[in-house]
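Reviewers asked in the last cycle whether our approach scales beyond single polypeptides. To address this, we selected a multi-component target totalling 633 residues and predicted its structure end to end. The input consisted of the following lines:
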Amino acid sequence: MAEAVTQSAPAPATRKARSGADLASGLWILVVAAFFLLPLLGTLIFSLWAGGSHYNLSNYTKLVQSPKMWAALWLSVKLAIYTVALTMVLLVPAVLFIRLRAPWLRPVLEVISVMPFVIPPIALVQGLTGLYSVPGAALALPVWFVSRPEFMVLGYVILALPYTYRALDVGMSALDVQTLTQAALSLGANWGQIFARVIVPNLRTAILGATLLTFAIVLGEFVFANILLFNTFAVYINYIGQVNGTGAAALSLFSFFVTWVGMLGLLAGGSRGQVRAGGVG
Amino acid sequence: MARLEIRDVNKSYGPQHVLRDAGLTFAEGELVTLLGPSGCGKTTLLRIIAGLETADSGAVMLDGADISAMAPNRRNMGMVFQAYSLFPNMTAAENVAFGLKVRRTEGRRRAARVDDLMELVGLGAFRHKYPHQLSGGQQQRVALARALAISPSLLLLDEPLSALDARVRVQLRDEIRRIQQETGVTTIFVTHDQEEALSVSDRVAVMNHGRIDQFDTPQAIYQRPATAFVAGFIGISSRLEGHVAEGGVVLGSEVLPAPPDHGMTTGTQVTIYLRPEDVRLSPMVEGGRRGTVRAQTFMGAQTRVSVALPGGAEIHADLATPEAGALLPGTEVAVDWNMDRARILPRDRTAA
Ligand SMILES: Nc1ncnc2c1ncn2[C@@H]1O[C@H](COP(=O)(O)OP(=O)(O)OP(=O)(O)O)[C@@H](O)[C@H]1O
Ligand SMILES: [Mg+2]
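The resulting structure, written as structure tokens, was:
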């Protein structure tokens, strides 16, 4: 848009300067694109290699026909969904409460939210097991729960916290939540109605962003599952990588594809809502 | 319709005493303005009435029942906030419908009521616009319609016009008054603008540092301000200092007649307040009270002339603009006023 407007009547001197700048920025974009795309291209070629000078899609056909792959992918997706759900149930009210009633707690939550950057996942998983699943531990949970992959959701919520907290916090800063909740209260709404009709719809974009990031993290998380011996998608990629190099390349590209399709789908759904909500949120 | 009574409400934030024994009784269907400078506790008092804040002591009584502990979402009070407060994810009509939706009002009745209210605030054509597509004035109208939609027992307006430009303010304030009279809803209107307060209210409560200084009709407030603060705040700008003596008030070297019923003992230090429209300026004559024109402030049809008296006091007079033309700074004039229209109050050392 802006481009078209500026180019409609350019002065000769600026046109020259502009084309120089265009060239430089074009080159730069090319360099950046190469940096990101070359490894992908390499992976793609490698994944099509079938020994000698043969190239075909056999890795991919094997992949989509492998029930193990689908099981691992489905487990990871399921865990991601649970993680998102638990995160939202815990975090949206918490962030709202802190904004409304306890602003002095904000720095505390801020510090807590970046902990996963400081604590390595290996320590986190040991801590979680020590706390919840060793018999007689402080907060021992029933064995049927800690022996299920869903147990890892507790850890994933923490792992995703730096991203989910920030997304929600930024989303709420764009709203005058104090006034909006008070307006809703004075109109007779209860807290459930305030969440469902006022807070969540206006946090749509933030929640979407948090969801995308959580999916990316959970689909790629390896340490937890590997240590606790659950066969998630990342663990499966690692396993294939050890037994079949070209198959692993195909799987990586496949997971890349799955993630992108998922993200674009969510974004498309989200931006439709965005238009309806009039660019707020 | 409802009768509201506020009894000796106190509220502190930490060491700061924001409301001090605030008490008011409202009549059914009247529009009362809470008038006071920024930070005097108007919003806090309104929020206590709405239940969004709790008082440290005192009570809020509605129709004789103490509602101090009632949750805000059960009070059925419509509120319009100082900040824009429409729900950004809903259209104007959906905003107005919100209170009815949470009350589970049946769909057809709800739609009819929303239509009525959008018409009432003059925004029938803007039903399907989102808040960000509306001007500030339109947003506040929608907020007003939204508050009225629930047929509130009380309408609370917290400086709904403060973010709007002067013309829209005047227009919308008159409209609020019209709508309030049409619906007959008891209304509390907060403002720090004395002209706004005097022009729309049945009664005005003037607040000063968390205290109600005076609660009376606009006419009474303007003609008989109860305290120095009220006099100053509603724009009675000339003050002359003197003391009570036999037969009147001593001001410099003259004794001015004072109304016999002022009830102050001889020797009391007093301030005489004069409204600018009650001060007369005329060409200097022998024996007249002499003053020197200091400055003029053009206000349109009228011009405010500031005159220095020999004692150093400054007095303001509003003159028709053509009359003020000759009174350039430095001109000597005779200053006069009618003591009957002056207000004499014991000197308040705290109010500057
Ligand atoms: N939540 C709070 N915490 C601490 N102090 C507060 C709080 N709310 C209000 N105050 C203080 O109480 C005093 C009165 O505030 P209030 O909002 O009632 O003033 P106001 O009369 O509405 O002013 P304005 O005309 O500027 O809106 C102010 O000095 C303010 O700093
Ligand atoms: Mg206020």
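Residues B 42-43, 82, 158-159 surround magnesium ion (ligand 2) (CB under 6 Å). We regard this as preliminary and will revisit it once experimental data from Aim 1 are available.
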